[in-house]
Automatic annotation (TrEMBL):
Gene3D superfamilies linked to this entry: Medium-chain alcohol dehydrogenases, catalytic domain, NAD(P)-binding Rossmann-like Domain
CDD domains for this protein: zeta_crystallin
Membrane-spanning parts: none
Enzyme class: oxidoreductase
Top-level taxon: Bacteria
Pfam families: ADH_N, ADH_zinc_N
Protein's UniProt name: Quinone oxidoreductase
Keyword Oxidoreductase among record annotations: yes
Amino acid sequence: MQMRAATYHKSGEASDVLSIIQCEKPEPGPGQVLVRVSFSAVNPSDVKTRSGKTPRPIDDFQIPHMDGCGRIVAVGPGVHEGRIGQRVWLWLAALGSRWGTAAEYTLVPANQAVALPDSASDELGACLGIPAMTAHECLLHAGPVTHKKVLIAGGAGAVGHFAIELARWAGATVIATVSTPDKAKLAQQAGADFVVNYRDDDVADQITAFTNGVDIFVEVAIVDNWNIDLAVAAPGASIATYATDGRELSIPIRECMAAGLGLRFFLLYTHSRSALSLAAQSITDALAEQALTPLPHLTFPLDDIALAHEAVENGESRKVLLDLRDSDT
């Protein structure tokens, strides 16, 4: 049976290399499930991979996108048939596989199709994946955060949004940094206890006055924020950083040693699958308790995938999704 899918055969500009094709629907093998996709999320890393900035091997063709949401329609050997019909959210679908989520159907290992609680919308399910799992692992990299003071840099971004919500769910006090009043509102809506504009001259003073020391940092711009982080860190604090713009960071080692500061560099794609599976279950527990909310999103049809990629490249602040619910084979 045929399906519609977005594919590319080589890296390049979105409008040059992305095309919509008809191809054979894959069949699930041992331990796999076939999912009818409802929404496919476009992450910055998906765009970078397609453009060639962070290239990955292409197995004849590549259907892009790691994250999405849908319903299981078939299972392979070793997967309980009771999972057929289950609504699921998907993570890292295209990592080491040609079957990303930008298609009517995708094929993933069963544990990468995680049951979606009835209370969670498909749009929320599609928004999870990379942002929520990055948030979870950075937030908890040094252990439980109950009663801890947590600083989320970039609190209005996708990772920041879920980091705030997961931290509140876990019982932490949450400080978020943002760049505009509108983004401050988003961080507050997500549940941040204190929000500060990182462009203010007295950012460190404001944070210290509120917290008297931060225990855990979820950091998106460590080079820009290093001096602030060091100034507000409590003794024994720990920083997890998950992004880079390529600049180098010079660290005052003696000062860090005296503060007992921990520093963890995080890349989701090299993180252990067992740890990510545990993170997925924890995220689903938070979903079941309605602790997570959808990101503001902008939706495109599958046929406009190039425009969707260009929107991400041009700095669209909303989460970009492809809507495949009414896609016709």
